[in-house]
Amino acid sequence: MKNLLAILLVTLVCLVANPAPAIAEEVWDADEGEVSYEVIYREDRNTIAVWEYSGGKVFIEGLGGVAHDRGSYHACMISWRPP
């Protein structure tokens, strides 16, 4: 029993001392009149943010890596079908 308690304690200390990075995606719904689609902040490629929706991708220069105090940005949308 003491060995099990020691193993649990060491495991807990290792998890607290070396946490894994959180991985999350921002997801929201966009409405255009009667059309609604889900937009996902998929990834950052250096300074470029990549958003994805059912009709294509949006590449936003300067937004990649910015988590706070976001402003206005220029974007390039690549669509394989209209949203």
What separation lies between the terminal Cα atoms?
60 Å
Give the mean pLDDT. 74
The chain-level structural class is alpha+beta
Q: Element order, helices and strands?
A: HEEEEE
What kind of sheet is the major sheet? 5 strands, antiparallel
**CA-based shape:** extended
Radius of gyration: 20 Å
Q: How many distinct beta strands? A: 5
Query: Helicity range of the residues?
Result: 10-25%
Description:
This protein is an alpha+beta fold. The chain has one domain. Helices cover 19% and strands 41% of the residues. The chain is built from 1 helix and 5 strands; from the N terminus they run αβββββ. The chain has a 5-stranded antiparallel beta sheet, with no helix packed on it. The longest helix has 16 residues, at 2-17. The radius of gyration is 20 Å and the shape is extended. The model is unreliable at 12-16 and 19-23 (pLDDT under 50).
Give the tags.
single chain; 83 residues; alpha+beta; 1 helix
Draw up the topology in text.
Layout: H1 2-17, E1 27-32, E2 35-45, E3 48-53, E4 56-61, E5 75-79
Antiparallel strand pairs: 1-2, 2-3, 3-4, 4-5
Write a short abstract of this structure.
By secondary structure, the chain is of the alpha+beta class.
